[in-house]
């Protein structure tokens, strides 16, 4: 092991692409993973500076009397309003970025993964050394989400997809693409990238 700063690698993919499943395979290989979306939710309810900014921007009703984040209220305020979505993102994403930096400094590994749904959309990919995009056909993604979250409608899923960059654009921006289709094995793709990233971390060269 080395004490030098780990290579920072983003892993992203649209809803239903299977990025969390892919991240878990990397985890089995011993790669530390920062789940940015989960951490964002935690910070919104626990980071005093972020809490203060949310209250200032969206009102005291953003939190209950006991101090818990009022997710229903915020979702209603933000989801249908593009400007308010940008506003909440402008508060949350910098807080996640700082939290990630602190987390990275505590890791002792050749590289670490930052798993996030909107790496390209928010521009946070620019702070990372490499990015992996998990790609899958649209119909397959929709069917996966319908199976996973039966309370969602196909329209709701397509609305979410419409707010995310198309796979083609993500694939062009990414350093690596994992194809999570029904006829392509995941593990060999992950192992190949894992080896390439370890090589990159050790020597500064990508070998893939």
From TrEMBL:
It comes from Mongoliibacter ruber. ATP binds at residues 16-21. The keyword Transferase applies. PANTHER family: BIFUNCTIONAL COENZYME A SYNTHASE-RELATED, DEPHOSPHO-COA KINASE-RELATED. GO terms for cellular component: cytoplasm. Catalyzes the phosphorylation of the 3'-hydroxyl group of dephosphocoenzyme A to form coenzyme A. One of its GO terms (molecular function) is ATP binding. One of its GO terms (biological process) is coenzyme A biosynthetic process. Keywords: ATP-binding, Coenzyme A biosynthesis, Cytoplasm, Kinase, Nucleotide-binding, Transferase. The gene is coaE. It is found in: Cytoplasm. PROSITE patterns: DPCK (PS51219). It is an enzyme of class 2 (transferase). It catalyses: 3'-dephospho-CoA + ATP = ADP + CoA + H(+). Belongs to the CoaE family. InterPro entries: Depp_CoAkinase, P-loop_NTPase. This is Dephospho-CoA kinase. The keyword Mitochondrion does not apply. CDD domains: DPCK. Pathway: Cofactor biosynthesis; coenzyme A biosynthesis; CoA from (R)-pantothenate: step 5/5. HAMAP family: Dephospho_CoA_kinase (MF_00376).
């Amino acid at each position: 092991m080395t004490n030098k700063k780990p290579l920072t690698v983003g892993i992203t993919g649209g809803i239903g692409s299977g990025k969390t499943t892919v991240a878990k395979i990397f985890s089995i290989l011993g790669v530390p993973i920062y789940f940015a979306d989960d951490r964002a939710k935690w910070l919104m309810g626990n980071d005093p500076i972020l809490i203060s900014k949310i209250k200032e921007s969206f009102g005291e009703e953003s939190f209950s009397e006991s101090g818990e984040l009022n997710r229903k209220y915020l979702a209603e305020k933000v989801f249908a309003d593009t400007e308010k979505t940008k506003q909440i993102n402008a508060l949350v994403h910098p807080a996640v970025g700082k939290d990630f930096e602190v987390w990275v400094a505590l890791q002792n590994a050749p590289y670490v993964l930052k798993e996030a749904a909107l790496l390209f959309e928010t521009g946070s990919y620019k702070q990372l050394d490499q990015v992996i995009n998990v790609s899958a056909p649209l119909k397959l993604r929709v069917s996966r989400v319908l199976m996973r979250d039966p309370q969602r409608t196909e329209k709701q899923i397509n609305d979410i997809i419409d707010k995310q960059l198309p796979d083609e654009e993500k694939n062009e921006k990414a350093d690596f693409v994992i194809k999570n289709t029904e006829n392509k094995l995941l593990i060999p793709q992950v192992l190949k990238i894992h080896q390439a990233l370890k090589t990159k971390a050790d020597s500064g060269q990508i070998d893939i």
